């Protein structure tokens, strides 16, 4: 089997992890050269490799995978989920303990909105690049702290860098954070069966609920939207955050539903969010961005 992946250190590590669990596979680095747009261009590169028959399976960080996919492709499975939390690296032992006016680096409007909602005094600054680049910026002393996903650090063996995890009531993760989405061509039963064999039902149900919220809110990976699902026995709990990038206005909600009906739970949460004004906040957030 051939696995299409981005060429970054994290993407290759994730693809090798999947290959090992499949009993071995060839990695195909997808080319995103000339693709327009933000990080979604890397997703399109992997999808293009699948559609062209250059690979059978695509490995994505699920939080990067748009809710709309080419109709010829599907998420075949999601392996066991890694830690979904956002983590703080730098000065301070908790969000409340961080220094007054601390300079915090992130490129995420979702993180920016929640940081400023909790601590309006923080100076949130744009920070782009891969994990190594962001950590290096912190080491250079131009920032007091950065916020990253725990999953990426753990997969790269950099968990020692973590200062503390941000709790869900302060920082709702991005939909799909910590989850790998294994993508295949619809009708390719051999690949689908292989992917399914290393899949995890709990992870797939959580991912389904979270992606349902993103899709029904017509959000993107750049929207200041956090949604996190946790399966607990036969129940599924969902937390959501919608806010303005400057932290001046936001909504939070929590809902519990049946684990076997994750899409329904996600749809119910969306109805509550819309009733509370989430559409207006997201539209204003897009204008501000």
Task: Give structural notes.
With 289 residues, the protein is of the alpha/beta class. It has 3 domains: 1-79 and 175-199, D-Maltodextrin-Binding Protein, domain 2 (3-Layer(aba) Sandwich); 86-165, D-Maltodextrin-Binding Protein, domain 2; 200-289, Double Stranded RNA Binding Domain, CATH 3.30.160.40. 35% of the residues lie in helices and 24% in strands. The strands form 3 sheets. It has a 5-stranded mixed β-sheet, with helices on both faces. The protein has a 5-stranded mixed β-sheet with strand order 7-6-8-5-9, sandwiched between helices. Strands 11-12-13 form a 3-stranded antiparallel β-sheet. Helix 7 (201-216) packs parallel to helix 8 (262-275).
CATH architecture of the largest domain: 3-Layer(aba) Sandwich
Any low-confidence stretches, pLDDT <50, length ≥5? none
From the spread of the alpha carbons, the general shape counts as globular
| CATH overall fold name of the largest domain | D-Maltodextrin-Binding Protein, domain 2
What profile does the largest beta sheet have?
5 strands, mixed
The CATH class of the largest domain: Alpha Beta
Cα separation of the termini: 41 Å
Largest sheet strand order: 2-1-3-10-4
Radius of gyration: 19 Å
Give a short overview.
This protein has 289 residues and is an alpha/beta fold. The chain has three domains: 104 residues, 3-Layer(aba) Sandwich (D-Maltodextrin-Binding Protein, domain 2), CATH 3.40.190.10; 80 residues, Periplasmic binding protein-like II (D-Maltodextrin-Binding Protein, domain 2); 90 residues, 2-Layer Sandwich (Double Stranded RNA Binding Domain), CATH 3.30.160.40. It is built from nine helices and 13 strands.
């Amino acid at each position: 089997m051939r696995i299409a992946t981005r060429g970054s250190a994290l993407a290759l590590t994730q693809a090798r992890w999947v290959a090992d669990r499949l009993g071995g596979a060839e990695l195909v680095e997808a080319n995103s050269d000339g693709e327009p747009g933000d990080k979604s261009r890397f997703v399109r590169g992997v999808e293009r490799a699948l559609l062209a028959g250059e690979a059978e399976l695509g490995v994505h960080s699920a939080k990067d995978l748009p809710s709309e996919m080419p109709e010829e492709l599907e998420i075949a499975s999601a392996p066991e989920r890694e830690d979904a939390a956002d983590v703080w690296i730098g000065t301070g032992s908790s969000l409340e303990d961080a220094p007054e006016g601390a300079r915090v680096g992130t490129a995420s409007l979702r993180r920016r909105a929640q940081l400023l909602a909790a601590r309006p005094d923080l100076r949130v600054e744009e920070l782009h690049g891969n994990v190594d680049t962001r950590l290096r910026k912190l080491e250079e002393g131009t920032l007091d702290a950065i916020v990253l996903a725990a999953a990426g650090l753990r997969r790269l063996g950099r968990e020692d860098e973590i200062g503390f995890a941000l709790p869900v009531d302060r920082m709702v993760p991005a939909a799909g954070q910590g989850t790998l989405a294994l993508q295949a061509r619809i009708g390719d039963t051999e690949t689908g069966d292989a992917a399914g064999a290393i899949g995890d039902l709990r992870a797939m149900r959580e991912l389904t609920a979270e992606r349902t919220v993103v899709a029904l809110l017509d959000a993107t990976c750049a929207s200041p939207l956090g949604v996190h699902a946790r399966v607990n026995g036969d129940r599924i709990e969902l937390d959501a955050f919608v806010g303005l990038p400057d932290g001046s206005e936001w909504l939070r909600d929590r809902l519990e539903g049946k684990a076997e009906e994750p899409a329904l739970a996600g749809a119910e949460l969306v109805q509550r969010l819309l009733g509370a004004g989430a559409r207006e906040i997201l539209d204003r957030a897009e204008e501000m961005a």
